Amino acid sequence: MVSRQKIATQLEDALHGRKPLSIDAYVEIVASHETRLKDSLNDDSDDALLCMVADEGDVALLVVDWDGSTYRNDDGLQKLKQMWGSSFDQNVKTLAPIFAEHINRNNLGVAGIKWMQKNASGEQK
After folding, report:
1. CB atoms within 10 A of CB 124
2. Residue pair 62/124 in contact by the 8 Å Cβ criterion
3. Which among 63, 48, 52 has a CA at the least distance from the CA of 21?
4. What is the full per-residue pLDDT of the chain (125 aa) written as tens digits?
């Protein structure tokens, strides 16, 4: 079994572009959960939902926006960067170990996420 630390590293590598996101992992694992994940966002007050998986070194992600739009793999990564702005690196460091724990227990790594607020100069903080 892969350690939580190794899974967290795989997630971080994919989020930072050091490792490509896997369409195979997306299709095999995440795609069948899309409807349920969209529905779960309706029950929360989050701006979006992030789902990630890691399987045998392959990583895939899904972002579901508040309006039901879905962003898969690279499109999802770009959406996260847009949402989090300058907080992207810190959010990755925070979420990767949490998702690794979920994935290590054979679950999807799932969290509700928020748009980062912009400061007076228009930059996200």
Report:
1. 15
2. no
3. 52
4. 689 999 999 999 999 999 999 999 999 999 999 999 998 887 777 899 999 999 999 999 999 999 989 999 999 999 999 999 999 999 999 999 999 999 999 999 999 998 876 544 555 44
Determine which helix (DSSP H) or strand (DSSP E) holds 59, and give its type and residue range. strand 58-65
Q: Are the beta carbons of 29 and 62 closer than 8 angstroms? A: no
Provide CB contacts within 8 A for 53, sequence distance 6+: 25, 29, 30, 59, 60, 61, 103, 108, 109
CA gap 107, 36 in Å, rounded:
14
Show Cβ contacts of residue 28 under 8 Å, excluding neighbours closer than 6 positions.
55
What DSSP line would sit under 34-69, residue for residue? HHHHHHHHHTS--SEEEEEEEETTEEEEEEEETTS-
**Residue 48 token pair:** 């979006």
- Give the residue from 90, 45, 49 showing the smallest Cα distance to 69: 49
Q: Which residues pair with 51 in a beta bridge?
A: 62, 110
User: Beta strand pairing status for 58-65 and 48-55?
Assistant: antiparallel
